[in-house]
Design a protein that fits this description.
Blueprint (H helix, E strand, L loop, with lengths): L1 E11 L2 E10 L10 E11 L5 E12 L4 E7 L7 E2 L4 E10 L3 E12 L4 E12 L6
Antiparallel strand pairs: 1-2, 2-3, 3-7, 4-5, 4-6, 4-8, 8-9
Length: 133
């Protein structure tokens, strides 16, 4: 069972991002503690040229204020080319030691002309619904 807890939309660098996060009860183990959150990101290119997502960097902050930075090539082993007017969608997850936290970050992009630029990934919440009751 998953519980949808967050939905965020933003525009950055000529791209729109739609982000959904949800708590995954089945995979979580509060006794450890390990709280499992799924998230999906839908990226749409509104620029007149194609661009490839070549790198991503995340800042993850748990409820205790502990920060974790993750950076790497592409997304899940891919470096998707997003053509003008097209979209790319993926799902991933984050495990926290607390019932809530936040994620934010940037995608490094390279356009068809070889120019690099960044797309800001807006802050979104990772939240077990009972954490706010």
């Amino acid at each position: 069972m998953t519980v949808k807890t967050n939905s965020v939309q933003a525009t950055s660098g000529g791209f729109s991002l739609k982000i959904f996060s949800e708590y995954n009860h089945e995979l979580s183990d509060p006794a450890r503690p390990a709280y499992f959150f799924d998230y999906s990101i839908h990226i749409t290119n509104h620029n007149p040229v194609s661009a490839q997502l070549i790198r991503r960097t995340w800042e993850i902050i748990d409820a205790n204020g502990n920060k974790n930075y993750i950076s790497g090539q592409g997304i899940k082993g891919e470096k998707p080319l997003i053509k003008s007017g097209e979209s790319y969608h993926y799902r991933s997850f984050c495990i926290l030691p607390t019932e809530f936290g936040i994620m934010k970050g940037v995608y490094r992009m390279k356009d068809a002309h070889g120019n690099t630029f960044e797309i800001e990934i807006p802050t979104f919440r990772l939240l077990k619904s009972s954490a706010i009751q």
